[in-house]
Amino acid sequence: MAASAPTPHATGFPAEGRCGYYVEKKKRFCRMVVAAGKRFCGEHAGAAEEENARKRILCPLDPKHTVYEDQLAKHLKKCNSREKPKPDFFIQDINAGLKDETEIPEQLV
Fold first, then answer.
1. Distance (Å, rounded) from C-alpha 30 to C-alpha 83?
2. For the chain, how far is it from start to end, CA to CA, in angstroms?
3. Which residues contact 61 (CB under 8 A, 6 or more apart)?
4. Where do the structural domains in the chain lie, given as residue ranges?
5. Higher per-residue confidence, 81 vs 7
6. Which terminal CB of the chain, N or C, has fewer other CB atoms within 10 Å?
7. By C-alpha distance, which of 62, 64, 63, 41 is closest to 51?
8. What is the CB-side half-sphere exposure of residue 86 using CA atoms within 13 A?
9. Is the pTM higher than 0.85?
10. What pLDDT does residue 14 have?
11. Residue 1 pLDDT more than 60?
12. CA dihedral for 69, 73, 75, 79, sign (positive or negative)
């Protein structure tokens, strides 16, 4: 029988190229990829003492992710959670029907 390779938590270290933050709730290390020369992913960069020069804050459009405070203006322009402009042909509630059944719009008569 072949012995299985030890898991990263069993050795006490995260997998190579992965975040070094230990997620207590999940009882494992974060599996996000880190940048070259870094120990933590972007989400857990605040946990590193050596990277405290830049402050991360919650995104005002979607608090599920964070962004560097000095890059907030740039982030708000490209964040996927921003409200996108509606196309010219879009009409709100076009197929919603009449609000009141006794109301008949002038255009349909």
1. 30
2. 82
3. 76, 79, 81, 82
4. 13-51, 55-82
5. 81
6. N
7. 41
8. 5
9. no
10. 78
11. no
12. positive
Residue given tokens 């870094």 in the structure block: 38
- Cα 22 to Cα 10, 34, 67: the distances in Å are 13, 14, 21
Would you say residue 25 has pLDDT above 60?
A: yes
pLDDT tens per residue, range 60-108? 998 888 888 999 999 999 998 888 888 889 888 888 877 766 666 565 5
Residue closest to 21 by CA, chosen among 51, 37, 42, 50: 42
Tokens of 72: 């907030």
Q: What is the pLDDT of residue 60?
A: 92
CA distance 38 to 40: 6
The amino acid present at 89, given as its one-letter code, is F
